[in-house]
Write a structure and sequence with these properties.
By secondary structure, this protein is an alpha+beta fold. The chain is 14% helix and 28% strand. It has one domain: Clam (outer membrane lipoprotein receptor (LolB), chain A), CATH 2.50.20. Strands 5, 6, 7, 8, 9, 10, 11, 12, 13, 14, 15, 16, 17 and 18 form a 14-stranded antiparallel β-sheet that branches.
Length: 457
């Protein structure tokens, strides 16, 4: 199996090298090339066919309707509840599957040989998006381009800008600009357990307007505003009332991210220029950087990006058990990592992108290796290396299809620290209200003045 998989990866890597330049600022693809998005490629740019040995099936449109058991407003029921694991990867049999594991997964087996395991299920290519996103993506293929330095995007509207990517930066921009609804309203939990498993639950009330995903939105019409973000800490009491407001800009070298914070102790709104890059994320106990939120966010300007190629990997997918309201947080959280009993891995093709810290630039991660799902452009795993070149943190996004929309997004993200034995789990919602998409929101509620009013209530 290792030989075949290696050959497949080599073939794909060479194809990409021949396919186009690896530098930013390239021209959009030709109409003839874009026509593949209605033929051998999906509208999102994935290979429509399955793999040679049949372990990855063909994409047939994904899940576009809720299963009969789903009730609107409730947690998303598992459309694959009857699936049984094909096999389970453990530290004992890891070598048999090494060629389809990420470096981070291998490191987790070495760090936690007695408890880390990966139940592998049949591959379900469940990814699906609204028709308008498909049509916008297909249109973008012949118009979108990177700015000359690669830190921004031009001539795109609503959908993925680069469904047929030519370099690593285009892949990352696809992740940054992928569809996650028009608005999002969610209450999620975050924990950073000690090595022994003790934790304190932090609850975050988050509201987002995705400016780029509004119907008819263009790069010009959003005026460099990719999103508007409002986050309120609701517990524990010692942190409750802290509010963060962010205007996420598209080209952050032209106009940096703008952020403000309301501190309930001071009862004042202050600018927060440090809410970016490798500064610690909200209430994360230093276990997550700001740019690790959503696996990667913000300006890509501190790294050189290299498109390695495409490969078949076992990655988190269709993790409805981790989302279930029948599961308690105490069932999920355990020392070292979340409980593998509730995990689900599948074999999928992923784009692999290597980010190397630019010379003379500061960041705690010297190198990052991204695994990006071909069907959704969701980053599903990241290996993060320290400045010495040692693998430091391993991140996984446990995704589901929010099929009433439809869209693919994480229901939980975990960042495992191999050095201190801790981890951060973000997105817990099992015991609370479910995420709500496309609720009415106004940008007037995402201003410093509105933040002041909200903080004084």
């Amino acid at each position: 199996m290792a030989t075949n998989a290696t050959a497949r990866k080599l073939t794909l890597t060479l194809a990409i090298a021949v396919f186009g330049a690896t530098l930013p600022g390239r021209a959009a693809v030709s109409p003839e090339e874009a026509a593949r998005l209605r033929d051998d490629l999906t509208p999102m740019g994935a290979v429509r066919a399955g793999n040679e040995d049949g372990t990855i099936p063909a994409w047939e449109g994904g899940i576009t309707e809720p299963p009969p058991t789903y009730r609107p407003g409730s947690h998303y029921t598992d459309p694959f509840a009857d699936d049984e694991p094909l096999f389970t990867i453990t530290a004992e049999n890891m070598e048999e599957y090494r060629d389809r594991l990420t470096a981070g997964q291998i490191a987790m087996f070495e760090r936690y040989p007695d408890t880390w395991r990966m139940p592998v299920y049949p591959t379900r290519r469940s990814a699906a998006y609204p028709e308008r996103i498909y049509e916008a993506t297909i249109a973008n293929a012949t118009t979108a381009e990177l700015t000359p330095e690669g830190w921004g995007v031009r001539n795109a509207s609503e959908g993925i800008p680069f469904p047929i990517p030519q370099n690593g930066l285009e892949c990352i921009w696809n992740h940054l600009m992928r569809y996650r609804g028009k608005t999002v309203d969610r209450l999620v939990g975050q924990v950073a357990p000690t090595p022994g498993g003790a934790y304190s639950l932090v609850m975050l009330d988050e509201k987002v307007i995705w400016a780029y995903q509004q119907p008819g939105a263009t790069i010009e019409s959003i005026q460099n505003r990719l999103a508007y973000f409002l986050q309120t800490v609701t517990q524990p009491p010692r942190l409750a009332g802290r509010i963060l407001l962010v205007h996420e800009t598209l080209d952050q070298t032209a106009e940096p991210r703008m952020a403000w914070v309301y501190n309930p102790g001071q009862r004042r709104v202050r600018r927060a220029p440090n809410v970016a890059y490798d500064n610690p994320g909200t209430a994360s106990d230093g276990q997550r950087t700001n740019d690790q939120t959503d696996m990667f966010n913000g300006a890509p300007d501190r790294y050189d990006w290299r498109l390695v190629g495409k490969a078949e990997r076992f990655v988190p997918y269709n993790n409805y058990r981790l989302h279930s309201s029948d599961v308690r947080y105490a069932d999920l959280i355990q020392p070292g990592h979340i409980n593998p009993e509730y995990m689900r891995y599948e074999l999928h093709r992923v784009w692999e992108v290597e980010a190397t810290l630019r010379e003379g630039i500061s960041h705690i991660y010297g190198k990052r290796y991204f695994y990006i799902d071909e069907d959704s452009w969701q980053i599903v795993a990241v290996d993060q290396y320290d400045r010495r070149g040692q693998l430091w943190r391993v991140s996984e996004a446990y995704t589901i299809n929010y099929y009433d929309q439809p869209l693919i997004w994480e229901t939980l993200a975990c960042h495992y620290d191999l050095q201190n034995g801790r981890y951060l789990a973000f997105g817990l919602s099992n015991e609370g209200r479910v995420i709500r998409f496309n609720t009415d929101m106004s940008t007037s509620d995402f201003t410093p003045e509105a933040l002041r009013r909200l903080g004084r209530r």
